[in-house]
Autoinducer 2 import system permease protein LsrD (Lichenicoccus roseus), 304 residues
Amino acid sequence: MLVPRFATAFNLSQAIAVVSEKALIVLPMALLMIVREIDLSVASILALTSCILGALLQAGWPLVAAIPVVLLAGAACGALNGWLVTRLGLASLLVTLGTMGLFRGLGYVLLGADSVNELPDALTNFGIDPLITSVLPQTILPFLLLAPVFAVVLHLTATGRRIYAVGGSPEVARYSGIDSNRLKLGLFVLSGVICALAGIVFTARLSNARANNAQGFELEIITMALLGGINVFGGRGALSGVIWAVILVALLRDVLGLEGVGGDAQGISIGLLLILSLLLSGVAQSRLRATRDRQRSPAVPAPP
């Protein structure tokens, strides 16, 4: 709060706008990590769907017709990831590492090194206009609408209990009658759709569509999920912690930027924060296990 220009409406609005797409994508990423999967292609899906949107608009498509096609393209990308993981039994880390290059390469096939900058006013206005107050940009609206839905589904529905069950013990979940592959496939498709929505938001916010959009986003999104308490081995985590982590990373980047710290140094700071949080979490869990073991072990009588 003592940093000059931090508490201004313009700065807070910019800080929120910059994190809009990452906040969206971290929602399905958290669910995937809870079921012991991961998606490294999220930023590439965002870039590809941004290119598809730009190419369609450049070809004269109306915005209302282009948006459903973009969302379907995102669903197809997620379905490909899910099919390779669930049907072929491949590791999601390796699958999405490959599709990360594939999807971004398709974006370059569509637009090459060029960008589409002539966009409809309805789209660009969404990217710059405020929502109710000057502090909240319209780009954060999809996250504000979807975050409660994800939280309710994860924490208050049978689907959420299945997600935790699959992540906690896949074998027990299978013997309980849960179709783990179907659940994971659905989560990958959902991730693709949300990435496509983030691609639309990103295109509107920057007023351009190009294949190199959102490079490096995937690592920061995973960092937000881990900082928010999502267990890297699955089965544990809550969206409330993830939302606080999104706020933390957004504030950290904003304050460092106001202090003149460059993007690379900001990445170092966030990486160190992640390592520190993982170390503290590991120490806390080790002490908790040691305490439980002492409580469960029978008391040994003192020798006479």
